[in-house]
Amino acid sequence: MNETKLSKRLKTVADFVKPGSSIADIGSDHAYLPSYLCVNGQIHYAVAGEVNEGPYQSALTQVKKLGISNQVHVRKGNGLEVISPQEVEHIIIAGMGGALITEILEAGSDKLEGVNRLILQPNVMADRIRVWLKQNGWELKYEVILEEDEKIYEILVAERGNVDKPYSNNIDLELLLGPFLMREKNAAFIRKWTSELYSWKRILNQFEQAKETGGVQRKKEELTRLISKVEEVIST
Ligand code: SAM
Q1: Among 30, 92, 111, 218, which residue's Cβ finds the most Cβ atoms within 10 Å?
Q2: Cα(22) to centroid of ligand 1, in Å?
Q3: Which of 118, 172, 173, 179 is nearest to 143 (CA)?
Q4: 104 lines ligand 1 (CB under 6 A)
Q5: Is 49 in the pocket of ligand 1 (CB under 6 A)?
Q6: Distance (Å, whole) CA 97 – CA 121
Q7: Ligand 1 centroid vs 236 CA: distance in angstroms?
Q8: Which own/partner contact pairs does 229-233 have at CB distance under 8 Å and 24+ positions apart?
Q9: How many CB atoms lie within 10 A of CB 127?
Q10: Mutation test of ligand 1: which of 51, 120, 156 has the most ligand atoms closer than 8 Å to its C-beta?
Q11: For a substitution probing ligand 1, which of 52, 62, 111, 149 has the most ligand atoms within 8 Å of its CB?
Q12: H helix and E strand count, the chain
């Protein structure tokens, strides 16, 4: 990858950055995202945070090569500890699991003051993020699901606001599937949940062969209910 071209996944993340905003890209790896945004004049101030030495060095090399070290500040540290309160307007965390992303947000909650937008791209467990956002005053504003190189990615964008607004009376399912995504039902969404259904049915099959205990029975019933709800969404 070079600095002027991003993957479809990161380009979609970049498109959610409001022009002129200051950003922190946490877990920036090569700092491709903030570099792209700066080189293209979309932003003028970024913090690229990295906890690991290798990616931290790659980020430093990248911004030095591009001559943008005065705009993209590469810092080594865990999660949001690399930024100060009020330093940035957007926080971007991409390419990690939903559990790690929520842990980073939770641990750094004192750094969210002054932040007006979260742009989060979990590779898995997006539902954990939806729950966290809802519990912490962040309204889910946009969701994208896309496929690239046979992998499916979700992007969640949140701003402070009415946490209940995106949800209806089917909240458990909406938290799992994504309230906007389940209404849009694009090809990537159908593909993702068709594949999940396939895995769940295999698990159900294993339960059916397992010795009957109260626990197994309960799990079987829960999974059967979930399968039929998700099937209903993707088939209508
Ligand atoms: N954000 C880039 C992207 O989406 O292409 C890189 C994703 S890469 C898979 C995840 C990066 O997050 C790694 O470079 C890793 O070192 C970094 N990382 C993991 N946990 C972190 C944490 N707690 N704080 C900062 N960086 C972290």
Answers
A1: 92
A2: 19
A3: 179
A4: yes
A5: yes
A6: 8
A7: 37
A8: 229/173, 230/173, 230/177, 230/193, 230/196, 230/197, 231/197, 233/173, 233/177, 233/182, 233/185, 233/193
A9: 17
A10: 51
A11: 52
A12: 9, 7
pLDDT at 3: 47
Check if 77 has its Cβ closer than 6 Å to any atom of ligand 1: no
Instruction: Please give the chain's pLDDT, 236 residues, in tens.
Output: 444 589 999 999 999 999 999 999 999 999 999 999 999 999 999 999 999 999 999 999 999 999 999 999 999 999 999 999 999 999 999 999 999 999 999 999 999 999 999 999 999 999 999 999 999 999 999 999 999 999 999 999 999 999 999 999 899 999 999 999 999 999 999 999 999 999 999 999 998 887 777 788 888 999 999 999 999 999 98
Whether 106 lines ligand 1, by a CB cut-off of 6 Å, is no
Query: Ligand 1: which residue has its CA nearest to atom 7?
Result: 95
Angle at 18 between CA 16 and CA 20, to 5 degrees: 145
CA dist 89 and 181 (Å) reads: 26
The pLDDT assigned to 5 comes to 81
Q: In what order do the strands lie in the sheet with 46-50?
A: 72-76, 46-50, 23-26, 90-96, 117-122, 151-160, 138-148
User: Does the beta carbon of 94 lie inside 6 Å of ligand 1?
Assistant: yes
